């Protein structure tokens, strides 16, 4: 039944085209197979894509990558009959890295943000915009992992819909090796491997201040980084903030994102040249606190974000 369910997803269909020989379909985790066989859940991958009618798959931040080997190699969503939650399977390919061999924190944030949108539509029958996204990274997620994402309604207050999610592997542990020793591989990086693809990141320039406490970056968001048509995906903005927090850290130190907190002040139109100012707030032992602002050339603020990075323990 699992293969039948996967075949109904237009995303899964596109993935298995020319890359099928080079990239065998990942084995579906037993935990997710149980969901596909549970009568209380149904495959909504097609339904949300077709019925919501709010985005163009070819310009979408996630779904336009389905044909690219090493990106999102599986993306399936099941909704429960009570319409309170979804359970999703996302296979994170080898080209979704931040640190080599580790899924980029912005990639995980993007998937969570995307599935909050799918779940909201499943629960309410309406689409909405992300106003706030808070992500806690408990452990590094290795690439080539089939992540199982549980997304559920927390509560509703008028027009406000609060949701929560968690990402697990089949064992629910994620106790795996970190991957390669090298810190960064452009060809496998979530952002930088897209810079030669039209409509994606059409410029990415970072200037570091000589005091090593801030960076000013210029990122041109192309027209294929959308969530809603013509509007940059909230996960894409979160990814940029997370990435530039890392660049600001790297000027003087290295670390991993422990928390990413993003406030979306207004929708960011595609084809915007954004200015992202990222600053060090304070350091407390191995904890590094940073903040950033995303604005346009006219000074309009679209997003504000904060982050907590953890520096590795010094060698013994």
Automatic annotation (TrEMBL):
Which residues lie within the region annotated Disordered?
Answer: 1-28
Q: Which Gene3D superfamilies match?
A: Hotdog Thioesterase (3.10.129.10)
Which PANTHER family does its entry note? UPF0644 PROTEIN PB2B4.06
SUPFAM superfamilies named among the record's database cross-references = Thioesterase/thiol ester dehydrase-isomerase
How is this protein named in the record?
A: Thioesterase domain-containing protein
The species this protein belongs to is Achlya hypogyna
**CDD domains for this protein:** PaaI_thioesterase (cd03443)
Organism lineage string: Eukaryota, Sar, Stramenopiles, Oomycota, Saprolegniomycetes
Q: Which residues form the Thioesterase domain?
A: 101-174, 230-300
The family database entries (InterPro entries) matched by this protein are listed as: HotDog_dom_sf, PTE-AB_protein, Thioestr_dom
């Amino acid at each position: 039944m699992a293969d039948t369910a996967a075949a109904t997803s237009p995303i899964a269909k596109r993935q298995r085209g020319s890359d099928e020989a080079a990239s065998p379909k990942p084995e579906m985790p037993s935990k997710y197979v149980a969901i596909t066989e549970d009568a209380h859940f149904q495959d909504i991958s097609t339904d949300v894509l077709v019925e919501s009618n709010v985005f163009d798959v070819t310009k979408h931040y996630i779904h336009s990558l389905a044909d690219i080997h090493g990106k999102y190699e599986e993306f399936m969503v099941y909704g429960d009959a009570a319409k309170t939650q979804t359970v999703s399977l996302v296979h994170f390919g080898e080209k979704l890295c931040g640190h080599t061999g580790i899924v980029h924190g912005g990639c995980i944030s993007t998937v969570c943000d995307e599935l909050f949108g799918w779940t909201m539509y499943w629960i309410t029958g309406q689409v909405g915009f992300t106003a706030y996204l808070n992500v806690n990274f408990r452990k590094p997620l290795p690439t080539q992992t089939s992540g199982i994402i549980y997304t559920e309604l927390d509560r509703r207050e008028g027009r406000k819909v609060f949701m929560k999610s968690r990402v697990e592997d089949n064992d629910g542990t994620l106790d795996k090796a970190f991957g390669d020793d090298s810190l960064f591989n452009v060809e496998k990086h979530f952002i930088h491997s897209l810079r030669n693809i039209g409509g994606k990141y059409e410029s990415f320039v970072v200037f570091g201040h000589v005091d090593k406490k801030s960076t000013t970056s210029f990122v041109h968001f192309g027209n294929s980084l959308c969530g809603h048509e013509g509007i940059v995906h909230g996960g894409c903005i979160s990814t940029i903030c997370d990435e530039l927090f890392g660049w600001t850290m790297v000027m003087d130190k290295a670390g991993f994102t422990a928390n990413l907190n993003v406030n979306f002040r207004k929708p960011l139109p595609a084809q915007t040249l954004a200015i992202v100012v990222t600053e060090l707030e304070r350091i407390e032992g191995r904890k590094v606190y940073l903040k950033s602002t995303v604005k346009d050339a006219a000074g309009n603020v679209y997003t504000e974000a904060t982050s907590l990075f953890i520096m590795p323990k010094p060698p013994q």
